[in-house]
């Protein structure tokens, strides 16, 4: 099982209140809204979510095992799902009783997360959408849009875990040339077994200096520094915590995509319904 960075309540505070603003930001950077990016990640189609999914009921089940409930997690998932045009509720009960409640209330999709896995279950066809893979795809789709097409372009991918895997699955389809780095070489090698097209790199510093498209799918801090970025750099960074040094923010903020739940949740939802 891959180590998942556990969110803290402080990481989540304020997301729900800023969803409208975040959607505007995504439109400015990528030309699409949160739901547009998620639909593009799953099926590269552009359907109006209101008409296409308007009657679908989504349930969110709080789970107490492991480190326990993260204050605001279920509420934030609920708000993200509602913000893209779906009806959503949080079960009153937790754990298995919550799952039972969601089924009895006829939720078509059920979101549920423990410390290792965050999934969305389609209760009609048993399709299961997983957070890490879909986060990778959603961020790769946003990156494809922000870069006006990754075809034929080099992308430095840091992190060959489940998020990186989802990202590569989309970026290879887009025709990008992936230069993958992982501090554990065997993880980069196992990614290459699934995607032979990727090129494994060992000199990350060099790659970051020589390339403008950076995908941060690691939980490492401060691995992208000022000397790695210039006016043409674009960064897509699902990794938590964000791997950028503080000094980079003023330079890159309009060309950086990063959040802790929004793109992953939206992409999981459309994946579970695809
Ligand atoms: C899904 C997030 C994204 C990054 N890390 C993942 C994480 O924090 N997972 C743990 C989620 C636990 C939720 C808790 C609850 O409130 O229901 N069991």
Break the fold down into its secondary structure elements and pairings.
Layout: H1 9-12, H2 19-30, H3 34-43, H4 49-53, E1 57-61, H5 73-83, E2 87-90, H6 95-104, E3 109-113, E4 118-122, E5 128-130, H7 131-146, E6 154-158, H8 162-173, E7 177-181, H9 185-194, E8 199-200, H10 204-210, E9 213-216, E10 234-236, H11 249-252, E11 256-257, H12 262-272
Parallel strand pairs: 1-2, 1-3, 6-7, 6-9, 7-8, 9-10, 10-11
Antiparallel strand pairs: 3-4, 4-5
Helix pairs in contact: 3-7, 3-12, 7-8, 7-12
What does this 3D model show about the protein?
It is a single chain. The protein is of the alpha/beta class and 274 residues long. Helix content is 41%, strand content 16%. The chain has 12 helices and 11 strands. α11 links the parallel β10 and β11. α3 packs across α7, α7 crosses α8 and α7 crosses α12. The mean pLDDT is 95. The structure holds pyrrolysine. The site of pyrrolysine has 16 residues, from α5.
Give the spatial strand order of the biggest sheet.
8-7-6-9-10-11
The CA-CA distance between the termini, in Å, is: 26 Å
Supply Rg: 18 Å
Low-pLDDT residue intervals, each spanning 5 or more residues:
none
Number of helices: 12
- Spell the H/E element sequence: HHHHEHEHEEEHEHEHEHEEHEH
Approximate helicity band? 40-55%
Task: Classify the secondary structure makeup into a structural class.
Answer: alpha/beta
Mean pLDDT: 95
> Could you tell me the number of beta strands?
11
Shape: globular
The major pleated sheet works out as: 6 strands, parallel
Question: Could you say which small molecules are bound to this protein?
Answer: pyrrolysine
Amount of beta strand: 15-25%
């Amino acid at each position: 099982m891959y180590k998942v960075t556990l969110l803290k309540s402080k990481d989540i505070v304020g997301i729900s209140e800023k969803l409208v603003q975040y959607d505007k930001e995504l439109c400015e950077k990528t030309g699409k809204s949160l739901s547009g990016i998620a639909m593009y990640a799953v099926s590269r189609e552009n359907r109006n979510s209101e008409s296409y999914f308007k009657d679908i009921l989504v349930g969110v089940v709080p789970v107490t095992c492991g480190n326990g409930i993260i204050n605001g997690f279920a509420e934030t998932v609920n708000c993200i799902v509602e913000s893209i045009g779906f009806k959503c509720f949080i079960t009153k009960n937790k754990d298995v009783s919550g799952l039972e409640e969601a089924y009895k209330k006829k939720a078509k999709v059920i979101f549920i997360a423990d410390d290792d896995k965050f999934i969305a279950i389609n209760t009609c066809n048993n399709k299961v959408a997983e957070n890490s893979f879909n986060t990778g795809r959603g961020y790769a789709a946003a990156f494809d849009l922000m870069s006006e097409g990754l075809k034929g372009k080099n992308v430095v991918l840091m992190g060959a875990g489940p998020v990186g895997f989802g990202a590569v699955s989309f970026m290879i389809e887009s025709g990008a040339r992936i230069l993958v780095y992982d501090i554990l070489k065997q993880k980069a090698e196992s990614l290459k077994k699934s995607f032979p097209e990727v090129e494994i790199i060992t000199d990350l510093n060099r790659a970051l200096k020589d390339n403008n498209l950076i995908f941060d799918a690691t939980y490492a801090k401060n691995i992208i520094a000022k000397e790695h970025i210039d006016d043409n750099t674009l960064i897509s960074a699902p990794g938590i915590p964000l791997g950028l040094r503080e000094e980079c923010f003023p330079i890159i903020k309009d060309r950086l995509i990063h959040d802790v739940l929004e793109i992953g949740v939206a992409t999981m939802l459309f994946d579970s319904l695809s």
